[in-house]
Amino acid sequence: MQASHPLRAPDAVIGRGEGSGFFGHQWHETPGTGAVLLCDSYVMTAPTFPLHPHRHISAVAILFEDTLGHMVSSDSVGTNHQFGAGDVHWTLAGSGVQHTQTPASGSRIHAVQMFIDLPEELRHAPAQTFHLSAKDVPIHETESCRVRLLVGNAFGLTSPLKLPQDMLIIEGRSDADLAIPVPEGWKAWMYDRDNERAGYITEPVVNGRFLVVASPL
């Protein structure tokens, strides 16, 4: 990634250490800075989180394409999903929801989970869940990049994942500088997967393996 990006090392190490059932890194962002409030980058091979509550945010799981097996998700609004490599699972907690996500036996889940801030009209709305399968993700590919459009519109593509708030989420890799078409006035956050650094950025140009999230919040 470009050195001008104000990215930082993780704010915390999470889990029980490398080689255990759960290990990763965590970044916390100041509320009001942008849509991303928290991001966990992790590897999970064993049940880690019992049933737990969320409210006033969205909890978003993005499974990287090197994931093996599946994650099983269930929640208090009766939504049950099984999702795997390259999939996105979005829990809009709104006024409140309880959920749990557990790897199926023999699985190795490599993923991020993000807490996404909600606009005021959604903070007290009924909980909803959304799911995007890897096979339905639009891909922008050239000789130097392969980019998956998870949410929003970019590179002439539109994600089929329809959310009740404006967002742009792009994940992939680029072997050369690649400008991400973030709408004017939106705030962009980036996870640099190669160097395990993350944070809000002023110039949405990537190089390497990355995840970018942008929103008008």
Report on the structure:
The protein is built from 1 helix and 19 strands. It has 217 residues and is mostly beta strands. A hairpin with a 3-residue loop joins strand 12 and strand 13 (145-151). The chain is globular. The model has no long low-confidence stretch (mean pLDDT 93).
Instruction: Name the CATH homologous superfamily.
Output: Jelly Rolls
Q: What is the CA-atom radius of gyration, in angstroms?
A: 16 Å
Shape: globular
Number of helices: 1
- Described by its quaternary structure, the protein is single chain
Can you tell me the CATH topology? Jelly Rolls
Keywords:
Jelly Rolls; mainly beta; 217 residues; 1 helix; 2% helix; 6-stranded antiparallel β-sheet; 7-stranded antiparallel β-sheet
Helix-strand blueprint:
Elements: E1 12-15, E2 22-28, E3 36-44, E4 52-54, E5 57-63, E6 70-75, E7 80-84, E8 88-92, E9 97-103, E10 109-117, H1 120-123, E11 128-132, E12 139-141, E13 145-151, E14 153-154, E15 157-158, E16 168-179, E17 187-192, E18 197-201, E19 205-215
Antiparallel strand pairs: 1-2, 2-3, 3-10, 4-9, 5-8, 5-10, 6-7, 6-9, 8-11, 12-13, 13-16, 14-15, 16-19, 17-18, 17-19
Q: Concise description?
A:
2% of the residues lie in helices and 53% in strands. It is mainly β and 217 residues long. Strand 1 and strand 2 form a beta hairpin.
